[in-house]
Design a protein that fits this description.
Length: 354
């Protein structure tokens, strides 16, 4: 019976991977490293395959998803792959009229701002995203012992795109709804939580070895507002994800003041941006939490010696955490020299070798 045997072998080596071990706060022989937005515009091979294919079409084609997800793994030798998609893919899949505009980001044709709008958010069925199941299945076969991270946008960050209609600096309409109409807000957040949970479950059922919930813009909130209006919803998602027995990573930008609450929401790993050193962050999160981060992505534009020195500092401070996964403090910037990332990956591996 070669097939089940191969799966079994993969299971053993996969669970031994430095990435999954660090997520579970187990000893590792080197610090694992991957980069948020490691696929994408920094890679010439990405720009080539995407040249004639709109972003949301690429996100719905298993052949493109597999190729783009594999590109940074092949090139940089990172310790984990992240499933190529976007946070708005599940919203598109339930029929919302939205697009990803090049150089802008997600744009929603008819923003959601009232009870009628919220009713348009139906539940996500696995069949709506059958391309995800197919792509993840192929990917885990190709990746072998390298884990695949599934991901989704968290309800607050998704709500911001839906309410504002696109990227927003101040999230003013989002906050107006949150502060002014808490019942509507909670209805919106509940519906988005159900969609997000289902989208992550589909990825795990197909073989993703970990999940990351991106609440990228939640750093715009005070701790009190986060606790009252967001935490209950993300905690609901994390609690249900717990049944799946894969590490749960939670990340947001500018969340220094929220780190303890982000970890209270129930993640196994908290992602930290570049503003808070990891030794400080380790004091802010709940016990039994690993950290992920946190080199400033803009530092990669400085000379290599500076990058190396800063990466070494991240590794040193990361030892204060119960587990550490090296990453950037946010996504790879589009103009980053990809050779810097390859070199950084090798450096992190060599420096952290035990
Ligand atoms: O490694 C990878 O590239 C993984 C793929 C990935 C991920 C994890 C993409 C592809 N998007 C995302 C998540 C995502 N999308 C987040 C959370 C992560 C983060 O904070 O960076 C957010 C906020 C979005 C929304 C989004 N999609 C933006 C940001 C707009 C804003 O508000 O400032 C943008 C520019 C996009 C488009 C997009 N998504 C992904 C790519 C490669 C692109 C660029 C599209 C292109 O190549 O034209």
């Amino acid at each position: 019976m070669p097939a089940p045997c191969a799966w079994h072998d993969r299971g053993v080596t996969l669970q031994d991977s430095p990435f999954l071990r660090a997520c579970r706060r187990l000893p590792v022989d080197r610090t694992p490293v991957w980069y948020m937005r490691q696929a994408g515009r920094s890679l010439p091979e990405y720009r080539r395959v995407r040249a004639d294919v709109p972003m949301l079409e690429a996100c719905a084609r298993p052949d493109m998803i597999v190729e783009i997800t594999m590109q940074p793994v092949r090139r940089h030798g990172v310790d984990a792959a992240i499933y190529f998609s976007d946070i708005v893919v599940p919203l598109k899949a339930i029929g919302l009229d939205l697009d990803i505009k090049s150089g802008v980001g997600p744009v929603v044709a008819d923003p959601i701002r009232d009870a009628d709008g919220i009713k348009r958010l139906r539940e996500l069925e696995p069949d709506d995203v059958s391309f995800v199941t197919e792509a993840v299945g192929t990917l885990v076969g190709e990746l072998g012992p390298t884990p695949l991270i599934g991901f989704a946008g968290a309800p607050f960050t998704l709500a911001s795109y839906l309410i504002e209609g696109g990227p927003s600096k101040n999230h003013e309409r989002t906050k107006a709804l949150m502060y002014g109409e808490p019942e509507l807000w909670n209805d919106l957040m509940r519906r988005l939580s159900v969609i997000t949970l289902e989208f992550l479950k589909v990825q795990v059922a197909a073989g993703a070895g970990a999940v990351q919930l991106f609440d990228s813009w939640v750093g715009a909130l005070s701790a009190e507002d986060y606790r009252a209006s967001v935490l209950p919803h993300t905690a609901w998602i994390f609690e249900r994800l717990g049944e799946l027995d894969v590490p749960r990573i939670h990340f947001g930008v500018g969340t220094g003041e929220l780190l303890s609450l982000l970890s209270e929401a129930g993640a196994d790993v908290v992602g930290v941006d570049w503003r808070v050193p990891l030794d400080k962050a380790a004091q802010r999160v709940q016990p039994a939490t690993a950290l992920q981060g946190n080199l400033d992505p803009a530092a990669l534009f400085a000379p290599w010696e500076v990058v190396a020195e800063r990466a070494r500092d991240v590794l040193t401070r990361g030892r204060a955490a119960e587990g550490h996964i090296f990453n950037l403090g946010h996504g790879v910037l589009p103009n980053t020299d990809p050779d810097m990332l390859t070199r950084l990956t090798e450096f992190v591996h060599e420096e952290s070798q035990t």
